[in-house]
UniProtKB/TrEMBL annotation:
Gene3D superfamilies on file: Ribonuclease Z/Hydroxyacylglutathione hydrolase-like
Alphabetically ordered keywords of this record: Hydrolase, Metal-binding, Zinc
Keyword Zinc part of the UniProt annotation: yes
GO MF assignments: hydrolase activity; metal ion binding
Family affiliation: Belongs to the metallo-beta-lactamase superfamily.
Organism: Amycolatopsis saalfeldensis
Record-linked Pfam families: Lactamase_B
Name of the protein described by the UniProt record: Glyoxylase, beta-lactamase superfamily II
PANTHER family for this protein: 102 KBASES UNSTABLE REGION: FROM 1 TO 119443 (PTHR42978:SF2), QUORUM-QUENCHING LACTONASE YTNP-RELATED-RELATED (PTHR42978)
Metallo-beta-lactamase domain location: 41-262
Coiled-coil ranges (or none): none
Cofactor annotation: Zn(2+)
């Protein structure tokens, strides 16, 4: 089936959020560090399933969220996150990205949510007509608060959804995963449990060729979990175990391509560009595998030359980039 990346704006994050998990970057530093920001993309994915119809994986952000103070007024999110956390050009809204492919929000037949964080469910209310699949543990935790302060799911972002479909992973083992869920009954879209980043974080295996990880991995470099690790608001042990299970999945399917929601690296950019027509060419696949061989050894250890580092902005401003 065709798989279309949808670029839904971008989000400004501290470098330490993405890469400080092994260097003691703390929750307080996350809130206080205003000098080491990077911009990262936000991606959702549209699957053109042959029988289930157009299926959306994640829902990105909405224009309402960019009016930060108004949208989050009265919530701790109003104070914890920066007012310019999100940037969403008009051509990158969910309706605009769907229209580019000939669809309207009401055409979407089902939505799969990798997890309930705000940059993945901001536009979810556009799809109140559709069933919404998510991990059963994520659904059960939807009213919990991260750090005891921040709602796992901000209520206005999900208020219109009535047809929740919690996923239980009772299907066959695959790769390093002891269970799976065949969402549409034909083996083409398998949900896999990748908890840690959130209680019920879920990855989506498409045609045994593409793994959509949500934030179970922020970038391809996070595959090297003992060298590159994001700061964890959830269960770090589960997070590490989930990445190791993904490593085993890659060993079982050597041609597997990992697609995350926020990969700002050249690897992520090249794959997103290569999927512009919904299919990855043999040339782009060969390039991706060559990149991976130059980046990781057979045990998914990272080439030391490719360890991420923060590069300050040339103008001395707070937003640099990660090399």
């Amino acid at each position: 089936m065709k798989i279309h990346p949808l670029r839904i704006g971008r989000t400004k994050v501290p470098f330490g959020q993405f890469y400080g998990g092994l260097s003691g970057f703390s929750v307080s530093e996350f809130a206080e560090d205003k000098g080491h920001f990077i911009w990262v993309p936000i991606h959702a994915y549209l699957l053109e399933h042959p029988t289930a119809g157009p299926v959306l994986v994640d829902a990105g952000i909405s224009p309402e969220q960019t009016a930060h103070v108004d949208y989050y007024r009265g919530s701790i999110v109003e104070h914890v996150m920066d007012v310019d956390e999100y940037d969403l050009p008009s051509g990158q809204t969910v309706p605009a990205q769907l229209a580019r492919l000939g669809y309207r929000p009401e055409d979407i037949r089902a939505v799969i949510i990798t997890h309930l964080h705000e940059d993945h469910v901001g536009a979810l209310n556009l799809f109140a007509h559709a069933p919404v699949y998510l991990g059963a543990a994520e659904y059960a935790a939807r009213e919990e608060k991260v750090f005891g302060l921040i709602p796992l799911a901000y209520p206005p972002s999900i208020a219109k959804i009535t047809d929740w479909r919690p996923i239980s992973f009772t299907g066959p083992a695959i790769g390093g995963f002891t269970g799976s869920a065949d969402l549409f009954g034909d083996g083409s879209v398998l949900a896999l449990p990748t908890p840690g980043h959130s209680p019920g974080s879920t990855s989506v295996l498409v045609d045994h060729r593409f793994l959509l990880t949500g934030d179970a991995m922020y970038t391809i470099r996070h595959l090297a979990v003992d060298q590159v690790r994001s700061i964890q608001a959830g269960d770090e042990g589960q997070y590490v175990e989930s990445v190791r299970r993904i490593q085993w999945l890659r060993r079982e399917f050597p041609e597997l391509v990992v697609l995350t929601a926020h990969d700002h690296t050249g690897y992520g950019e090249r794959l997103i560009a290569g999927l512009a027509g919904g299919e990855l060419s043999d040339v782009d696949l060969a390039w991706a595998k060559s990149y991976e061989r130059a980046t990781f050894d057979e045990l998914a250890n990272l080439n030391p030359a490719r360890l991420p580092r923060f590069v300050p902005a040339g103008d001395g401003g707070p937003v640099g980039h990660a090399a």
